[in-house]
Amino acid sequence: MEIKIILYGISIFTIITGSWILYYAIKKWNPDFKPKKLTAKLLREILGSKGSQIFSGIMGGILILFGITLTYLMLTKDMRSKSNKYAKSEWILITKFDGKNRSVLNSKIEIENKKISRMGKEHLKGYQQISFKDMGIDKIPDFVWDMTNLETLDLTNNEISKIPNEISKLTKLRRLILTGNNIENKHLKELEELTGAEITKPNNTYK
């Protein structure tokens, strides 16, 4: 169970409990009631009936305030994390080298697929760097594995949890950027052994 759900549960429980105690102290208090529990008995003896009523009201108010504060902190944290979330992009950034000149161009996954259907895959060998940054993809497009001269693969801020073994086809890969993805530490070690590339690891890896 996520810690966030537990904290929300605690805040709701304290608000409900505090509200009940406060309501009982204001509306349902019986000055002649004789409590059976030792702590309640001692409280009545020390503070008296009126003092116990005031104390109960204060405790109820504290519980309500604690629950509201905790809820507020959780909500503001959620809102902050949502506002910091990257804006998704549709564009791929490609660095291309034709043997003489190096150029940078913008493309899209569907555009590259159309190019392949028209021209074949030979042009992919000219790609040296490709960035899928902020695209929110959960799978690397298959045409990447035919970029045999690829040196840098940037997958920053996506939904990728596993990279297939086809990455071993990229024998010239020097840098693999995985920041902002959900990838197990075990899989990262496998990738390091498989590619020999420098890997920029995600901030949120897990075992």
Write the layout of secondary structure elements.
Blueprint: H1 3-27, H2 38-83, E1 92-97, E2 102-107, H3 109-119, E3 127-131, E4 152-154, E5 175-177, H4 185-195, E6 198-200
Parallel strand pairs: 3-4, 4-5, 5-6
Antiparallel strand pairs: 1-2, 1-3
Helix pairs in contact: 1-2
Structure description:
This protein has 207 residues and is an alpha/beta fold. The protein folds into 2 domains: 3-83; 92-200, Leucine-rich repeat, LRR (right-handed beta-alpha superhelix), CATH 3.80.10.10. 45% of the residues lie in helices and 13% in strands. The chain has helices at 3-27, 38-83, 109-119, 185-195, and strands at 92-97, 102-107, 127-131, 152-154, 175-177, 198-200. A 6-stranded mixed β-sheet has the order 2-1-3-4-5-6. Strand 5, helix 4 (185-195) and strand 6 (198-200) form a beta-alpha-beta unit. The protein is rod-shaped and about 95 Å long. The mean pLDDT is 87.
